[in-house]
Structure prediction request, 380 residues.
Amino acid sequence: MGSADANSGSASTIDPKGYLTSLSKTELKGQSYDIGDVKRVESLLQSVIKTNSRHPPGYIALARLHELAGKPVKARDVMSQCCSLNPRSEDAWLENIRLNEGHNAKVIAAAAVKENPQSTRLWTRATELETDQLSKKRVLRRALDLLPKSVVLWKQLVGLSEDDSEARLLLSKACSEIPASVELHLALARIVETVDDARKVLNNCRRANPKNAEVWIAATRLEEQVKSKNVQNIMKRGVQSLANENAMLKREEWIEQAEKCESEGAIQTGQSIIRETLSYGLDEDDDRKKLFMEDAQSSISRGRYGIARAIYAYILRIWPTSKSAWEASAHLEKLHGTKEDLWNVLEKAVEAVPQADDLWIQYANEKYQSGDVDGARIVL
Prediction:
């Protein structure tokens, strides 16, 4: 029994990372701890760092144990020693900074970035320690001199901009430094002064990222925003370009993107995505109609009625005499459209399938129930 206890608590079996996890889940306040237990764990962790002084997790676990026991000075001393022995460890420096406050934390952060000038995490933490905008910008500019390709740091600096003019200048510089960053280009396109400038930004981004669908979607949304007639053409070009680059999304992913567009108010873009991609990857002999009907029902279940309308329209372009598709489209408008939308669908339905008596009856009935008695008579 004694031998088993000794082995279970040896320095070679303790897991500093596991102990770190347990400490992070512990409420430090309002609880009491057995002093004997604390001393036993402290002894084990001391053994860990003596066995391997180049293993920061052991120091971090020991420092948190001291912190838990109400000994912040000892915790800081442990992490100071750890950073001296492991100057390239981001985690060690971040823990050391966390345990300190005010000026001391800034001094430690300065030492950390000096030892690790390529660490985005440490530069970010150093920025967070500053209390005024000017100082934060100064730290970020120093960081970007060393890490000009860091999207994270550019975003932080842009986030501190006082106005759109400053943000435009920063984002322009960022895009020139990182031409492959779609995120930065899209941000710039949103705040440039003219539509033509936005188009230029997106074109530059597209050339640098020929396999990225997001750029083409953004370009299509721009055309919709300015009420251009090129919405469908832009998406068509985008799909052709992505197909040539073997970079097409899966059809399910395209539907997801279309629904996202609708949720964000870009319904035309979403519907153009459906028109250009719904059949992607499907063979002619697949039961496409059934699959498309299921796609429409799925969109309806998620509240994306505009995308469902686009799917039904797609179905009816291929199978214009499909009674079931016309009925489904009419049902959608009855539940989620206007009476005019419903009448429009039913009028087209009876023209396409004139032998479908129940469609005629439904059309007349909808007119009658809306108070258009004369219209109902005309239909019949």
